[in-house]
Amino acid sequence: MLDDLDRRLLEILIKDSRTSLKDLAQQVGLSSPSVAERLRRLEDRGVIRAFTVEIDPQALGYTLQAIVRIRPLPGKLHIVQKLIEEIAEFGECDKVTGDDCFVARLFVRSIGDLDKLLDRIADKAETSTAIIKAQPIRRRPPPLAATAISNP
Amino acid sequence: MLDDLDRRLLEILIKDSRTSLKDLAQQVGLSSPSVAERLRRLEDRGVIRAFTVEIDPQALGYTLQAIVRIRPLPGKLHIVQKLIEEIAEFGECDKVTGDDCFVARLFVRSIGDLDKLLDRIADKAETSTAIIKAQPIRRRPPPLAATAISNP
DNA sequence: AGGCGTCGGTCCAGATCGTCCAGCATTTGA
DNA sequence: TCAAATGCTGGACGATCTGGACCGACGCCT
Fold first, then answer.
1. I want to staple A57 with a disulfide (CB 3.0 to 4.6 A). Which of A2, A62, A95, A139 is the partner?
2. For the segment B14-26, what is each residue's pLDDT rounded down to a tens digit?
3. Chain region(s) in chain B for CATH 3.30.70.920
4. Which keywords does this chain's UniProt record carry (chains A, B) (predicted)?
5. B135 contacts A94? CB cut-off 8 A
6. Start and end residues for every CATH 1.10.10.10 domain found in chain A
7. Residue of B80, B19, B35 whose CA lies nearest to A52
8. Cβ of A61 less than 7 A from strand C
């Protein structure tokens, strides 16, 4: 799926996606046109979804994050989903099996904002909210290695 | 906090962090040294946490994702946290208020792997797992605007 | 008001980088 | 066995980045 060089390139880019082709080339021992070609193919294959920038929500004033479990009332599923998508403070939302239909992450600047935003869903769904106290693991990609499972 | 130019730069970089300084400069109407300087400051201030690459777990064979709520048994909190951090398939973990101590995201290649990984925690914590069926919102940053709250 | 420091900007030139192309080695498949 | 395909390299050339000199706006102090 990925060869060793691809993995090394990705690992470097995960740390700094603005690394120049020349640097990448040096670090993996290829020429820069080869690296350019490999990156192009990784994008084509969809392995690289995007080169992007990770922004610190705190630095923007979002001092609070919450995980919200959302159970739409009967018949309200689509309205609720649309609402969630439209509220930009939802930074992530997964539709899951089980009682809770959605699990979402909410960025807010204050408890007041949290309350205001949840109020906009309150008449269409039951929610339960857990405030995030710490982030032992911040978003990271899955292991790149081809092997089956994390070292046992 | 951020001025309009900063916001525009960030928006461009969120879409493609490899955009050249020259392009950035053109798009916001500055010279490229000024843009370089602004980016440097955004990094210094911690607004930009990293330039990185978004990888598609599916393209790597991780066809399954799950949200796992984890409630360590009495006295096991730290051991459990350490264990979670060490298992690379955990792609995210938040420590939250409420009964569930941790909420984590797990990337796996099969239901079998899911079971194997959860087994490694099973004797130290209660877990409840929800399989992700769809992702209405994939990871996105909070709104960059300085205004209080999403359009009401 | 005038002087001065700072901040953020421009312009320019030398250094660095990316891209295109021709050519070569290795692998693949008919 | 040979032809085509693949993946790489090196070099040339154009594009981009970087650092320095300089400039204007602004706020502050005297």
1. A62
2. 999 999 999 999 9
3. 57-131
4. DNA-binding, Transcription, Transcription regulation
5. yes
6. 4-44
7. B19
8. no
